[in-house]
Amino acid sequence: MIIPVYNGERFILDTIATVQAQTYRDFELIVVDDGSTDGTLALVRRQAMGKVLTRLNGGPAAARNTGLAEAQGEYLAFLDADDLWHPEWLAHTVAALDADPALDVVYTDGVVLDRAGKLLRTIRSGPPGNTVARLLMGGFVLLSRTLLRRSAGEAVGGFGDLRLSEDWDFFIRLALAGRRFAHLELPLVARREYGGNLTSRAAELLACSRHVLAEAYAQPLAAGVPPYRLALARCLMFASWSSVRPGGRLQAVRYFLQGLALHPRSLATVEARAALAHLLLGDRGFAALQRSLTLRHAKTARQWWGSRSVSLA
Prior knowledge:
Blueprint lengths: L1 E4 L6 H9 L9 E4 L6 H8 L3 E4 L5 H11 L4 E3 L5 E3 L3 H11 L5 E9 L5 E5 L7 H6 L9 E4 H6 L10 H11 L4 E12 L9 H16 L10 H16 L5 H14 L7 H24 L1 H11 L8
Parallel strand pairs: 1-2, 2-3, 6-9
Antiparallel strand pairs: 4-8, 5-9, 6-7, 6-8
């Protein structure tokens, strides 16, 4: 498993602790410090039980490729430095790949936690279906929740030269190569919600997303994929939702209108509904709506994570 980290001294030890707590023990850990300027490297060297690699800052894709070049295992897992694995995550995902040699990628559901480790909401990915079509309309497979065969990752050349959306691009290329995906309906990965999340970089994220779509739609695509304009309009709706913050509401409205003008069916996307609800309800109202929409799945999440906190420091 590979953990890329840049200036992650606030949370990297918690993340490594969830790796060390895995009930499945046959794994190698590779932590790649991507040129951190804080105390991350010293913390990692003291705590990590595997390889610690250092490199000049090049972004998460380059850091993951550095780890990929060193990896020796049959399977690959990439854990973001601010995410957390449930102790049973590896056991379940490894068992799924072991049971089906024709399967290349397995992914789970997840939860979102606040700074204190309290459960905020669940994230359900759903089955892959038409994997290419689903991926072109958004990254429903998230990297920290995915285990894949190393041969599959190497066959598509690892991660592309992108600062953002590099994981989405990676999964699209895997799907276009005919790799088989499967879903485990288990909320076994936690993402921490805190100030400074990547979604605040809406303009940069949109530019990278345009590049990913341009590359994907330049390939021969089977029937059933969404039209390019609809896929791009969804990205604009996501940029709108990501921009709803102090000082960004006007830009959020601009992105929303651009997406609607590009393809009217974009109004039916989850991203458009989220952007519109956030604009109309404000931060508190939107947070309450999110909690209510995921309440029916909270019981399952709490069975795994507990009712209040997953503090692992």
